[in-house]
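Posted in: Protein Modeling Q&A

I'm a second-year student putting together a small comparison for a lab meeting, and my supervisor asked me to include a predicted structure for Response regulator transcription factor. I've never done this before, so apologies if this is the wrong subforum. The sequence is pasted below exactly as I got it from our records. If anyone can share the structure token output, I'd also love a short note on what stands out.
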Amino acid sequence: MIKILLVEDHNVVRNGLRLLLDKETDIEVIEEVSNGADALRSIREGKKPDIIITAVNNPQMDGLNLIAKVKHAHPFIKIIILSAEDDYKVIIHAFKAGATGYMLKTISTFELIFGVRHIFNSNERYLCNDIALKLLDKLLHTPDVDFDVPVGDIEISLREVEILSLIADGYTNQEIAEKLFTSKRTIEGTRQGLIEKTGTRNTAALVRYAVLNSVIK
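Accepted answer (user: helix_wrangler)
Welcome! Here is the predicted structure, written out as tokens:
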């Protein structure tokens, strides 16, 4: 029996996933939670999933932080990212953090179940077909593509990339904080930290730097 821990903050999505997975005779959803912190708490309290299925962006703790913490304490638990995010830099970050699989929320039920079984029965990583084809297309058309987010000696985290993208889209600190379930002060600190880290003079220069260095599109 494949034991699954679901981590998804949207109730409708989480309930739908549970219904799909529970239909399979060899898969059991042993716990479902809305954020990474509750997932860790569940494991500490004795739940023993074979696989965690989580989104990238969850309140309180994002998917990458969850991966790092789980892998540190429980290296044999496999983790699948199920996300709407198909940016290759996010995908590479997820695998570097320790993810075993990455699938888009648009995949078919058949591929979801296939991916879960494949990951459980092997030590191989798994990418859903849509992502694999997009990455292949990227490689074929961009021979010198760089899969690392670090720019020179500067390393920019996934969270910082996410905040940069929202800044570039014109959102205020308060609006970004609300979208990312954090405080305005945290966003202000991250923005200032990025300005200092990149050696830029202001927000406009920071966004220009991020675009020119392909940190954001």
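A couple of things worth pointing out for your meeting: Strands lie at 2-7, 27-33, 51-54, 78-83, 101-104, 126-127. Confidence is low (pLDDT under 50) at residues 145-149.
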